[in-house]
Fold this sequence. Notes:
Layout: E1 2-8, H1 13-22, E2 29-35, E3 42-46, E4 49-53, E5 56-65, H2 70-81, E6 89-95
Antiparallel strand pairs: 1-5, 1-6, 2-5, 3-4
Amino acid sequence: MKKVEAIIKPFKLDEVKEALSEIGVQGMTVTEVKGFGRTGGKREVYRGSAYVVDFVPKVKVEVVVPDDLLLPLIEAVENAAKTGRIGDGKIFVSPIEEAVRIRTGERGEDAI
C-alpha cells in the first residue's frame, strides 16, 4: 500500500476528486494548508506598500491505495491539477506498512 499526498491549487479540488473517483478511489482526506515553494510566495501591494505573502493557500489531498492503483492515481492527479503555471503543486508517495479499519477490525488492503 502507498500513501499519496498531493498539494494542489484549491480551485482544482473538484477536478481532482472527480478524476480519482473515476479510477475507483473510494476515500480521501482533504486539508486546507498554506505553504510556498521555489518562488517564495508572491508580492502584493496594499495601500501603496509592497509586502510579500510568504504562504500561499493550497489544498492537501491524502489517499491510501493498493500498489496497483498507484500509477493511475498519480496520472489522474497530475492531469486534473495541472494548469501549466507556477504553483501547480507536488505529489509525494510514501509506503504504508499497515492499515486498520477501526469499526470492523479489517486490516491491510481490506481496511482501505
